[in-house]
Amino acid sequence: MSFSSQYPILLEAVPLAFAALCPIVGMWKRKLCFPFSVAGVLATNFFIFSLWGKVTSTNTVTYALGGWRPPFGIQIRIDYVGLFIASIIGAVGLLVLIYSWRYVSHELEEEKCTYYYTLYLLLFASMLGFTVTGDIFNMFVFMEIFSIASYALVGITGQRRAVRAALKYLLMGATSSIIVLLAIAFLYGTVGSLNMEDIAGRLQVGGYTSVAGVALVLFLIGFAVKAALFPVHVWLPDAHSIAPSPISAVLSALVIKMGVLGILRIFFTVYTPGFADLSGTWNALTQAVAWCAAISIVLASIMAIIQRDFKVMIAYSSIAHIGYILLGVCMLTDRGLTGGLYNILAHALGKSCFFLVAGAIIYKHGFRRITSLRGLGRSMPVTAGAFAVASLSIVGLPPSAGFIAKWYILWGCLQKHQYAFVVMVLLGSLLAAVYCFRVVYYMFFVGPYGDGIDEAPATMFVPAASLAAGTLFFGIFATLILPSLGSAARALLAG
User: Would residue 326 be called left, alpha or beta, if left means φ above 0 and alpha means ψ between -120 and 50 degrees?
Assistant: First the structure.
C-alpha cells in the first residue's frame, strides 16, 4: 500500500492533530501558535490538492477506516463536488489564517490567541471532515464540531454584543442540530444503516415512504438553518458582522456552505432524484427551496442596501448569495446545478475578500459606517481596489467568476421555463450593484481622506488582493473547472 493511498484520511487527521497539539504549543510559547497553525493548514492543502487527478467527475476515491467496509465501518468518500469544496476550504482557509496573524494580535488579548488558533484549526478540520465523510452520522458529528467552534469564535472577544450574537447563533444552531439528529434517527430506525450510499440503495429497494419523507423534511429544515436560507436566516447578520473579521470571512465563505453541501448530499446522494414512491415529495421540496432561495436573493439584497454598517451590509449579501446557489441547485438541470456549484467558488472568493477588506479598514481606522469610507481609495488603494474588483463578482459582471455562475443559473432557470426566477436573479444583481458600488463611490469618488498611502500590513492586504484576483482568474479561465463540474452535476442529477 503506497503512502499516497493514505491521503484521504490524512487530509482530515492532520488538521485534527494540529488542533489537538496547538494548546500545548501555546502553553510553551504563544508566538509559535501562528506558524504551527500555518504548517498544519499547508500540510492539509498538500493532501487535498494531491487528490486532483485521482478524483474526477466520474471517479470517486474511498477509504475504509480500519479496513471495515461499509455499511459496518466508517467510510471517507471523496467525489468531485467534495474535492472541489475541500479545495476551496483549503485555499481560503490558508489565506484567512495568514491574514489573522496581525489582526488577531491587534484585536484579541494575548492569552486568547492560543484559543483562537486552536478553534480555527478545529473549525478547518471539521469542515473538511463534513465534506469528505461518506457516513451520515459522522457528517452530523463534524457539523457539531464546526458549529461549536463557530459559536466560540464569534464570541471570542468577550464583548457584550459578541456574546449576545454568539448566543443567538448557538440557539439557532442547536435547534437545527437536534432536527438533523432526529432525521438521522428516523432514517436509521427505518433502514438500519448510516452509510449514505447504502441508505440510498436500501430506500430504493424498500420504499419506506412515510418515515423517509418525514426524515427528508427534517434534514432540509436543519441544513437550511446552517445555510442561513430564508426564513431561517435571522442569526446570520449579527454573527457575521460582530465576529472578528477573519472569522466573518470564514463563516460567510465556508461555514454556511456546509449547510448547502448538507442539502446537496441529502437531495442527490441519500434521496436520489426521482426516488421511487417519494418523487412527489422530493420535487415539492426542491420547488419550495427554490422559492425560498429566490426570496432570499431579493429580500437580503434590499436589506443590504439600507444598512449603514459596512460589515452588516456584507452579511446580508451572503444571505442573498446562498439564495443564488440553492436556486441553481433546485432547478434540477445540469446548467443550473453547475452554476450553483460554481457560485460556491465565486462567493467564497468575493465575500471573504469583502470581509478581509472590512477588517483591514477597522484595523487601520476603526471605521464601520459606509459613509466613513470617504477617500479610502486614495490612502488604501490596494485594499479598496480589492473590494472594487471583488464587487464585479458579487454583482455578476464580466469577466468575473460571479458572472459565469449567474449566467449558468439563469440558463438553468430558462431550461425549466421559470421566468419569475429569471427576473428575481436579474433584480438581485441590480440591487447588488447598488450596495456594492455605493461603497466604491465613497472609497474612490468622495474625499480625499488622509495624506499618502496608509495600507494595513502586507499579511492583511495581500490575502484580500489575492482573493480579488481569484475572482478574475476563475472568470477568465472558467474552462479549467466548468467542464468537469458540469459532468459532476449531470452525475448527481442521474442519481
Answer: alpha
Dump pLDDT digits (tens) for 331-364: 888 999 999 999 999 999 999 999 999 999 998 8
User: Is 26 part of a structural domain of the chain?
Assistant: no
Q: Using pLDDT thresholds of 50, 70 and 90, give the confidence band for residue 18.
A: very high
Give the total number of structural domains in the chain. 1
| Paired residues of 61 in beta bridges | 78
Q: Mind listing the pLDDT tens digit for each residue in 379-421?
A: 889 999 999 999 999 999 999 999 999 999 999 999 888 999 9
Return the number of other C-beta atoms located less than 10 Å from residue 458's C-beta. 12
According to DSSP, residue 68 is labeled P
pLDDT for the residue numbered 465: 95
333 secondary structure, DSSP code: S
Q: Is 295 exposed, middle or buried (0-12, 13-18, 19+ CB in 10 A)?
A: middle
CA atoms within 13 A on the CB side of 133: 25
Tally the C-alpha atoms within 13 A of residue 120's C-alpha that lie toward its C-beta.
34
Instruction: Report how far residue 15's alpha carbon sits from residue 477's, in angstroms, rounded to the nearest whole number.
Output: 31
Residue 197 resides in a domain: no
* Grid cell at residue 417: 421555463
Q: Which three cell numbers stand for residue 292?
A: 425560498
The answer to whether residue 51 sits within a structural domain is: no
Give the residue carrying C-alpha cell 483591514. 360
For residue 44 the three cell numbers come to: 492539509
Q: How far apart, in whole angstroms, are the C-alpha atoms of residue 338 and residue 408?
A: 7
Cis peptide bond prior to 231, omega within 30° of 0: yes
User: 133 — phi, psi (to 5°)?
Assistant: -70, 150
Range of the domain at 337: 281-495
Burial class of 103 by CB neighbour count within 10 A (0 to 12, 13 to 18, 19+): buried
Classify the C-alpha dihedral 332-335-338-340 as positive or negative.
negative
Please give the single-letter amino acid code of residue 321. Answer: H
* Predicted structure pTM score: 0.94
The single residue listed with the C-alpha cell 456594492 is: 436
Ranges assigned E (strand) in 297-446: none
d(CA 19, CA 12) in angstroms, rounded, equals: 11
26 Cβ neighbours under 8 A, 6+ residues apart:
32, 33, 113, 114, 117, 118
Cell for 449?
A: 481622506
Whether residue 417 is contained in a domain is answered as yes
- 174 close to 225: Cβ distance less than 8 angstroms: no
310 and 439 Cβ atoms separated by less than 8 Å: yes
Residues ≥6 apart with Cβ < 8 Å to 233: 296, 300, 319, 322
Residue 74 is classified by DSSP as -
- pLDDT digits over 423-433, tens only? 999 999 999 99
Rg (CA), the chain: 21
For residues 221 and 178, is the Cβ–Cβ distance under 8 A? Answer: no
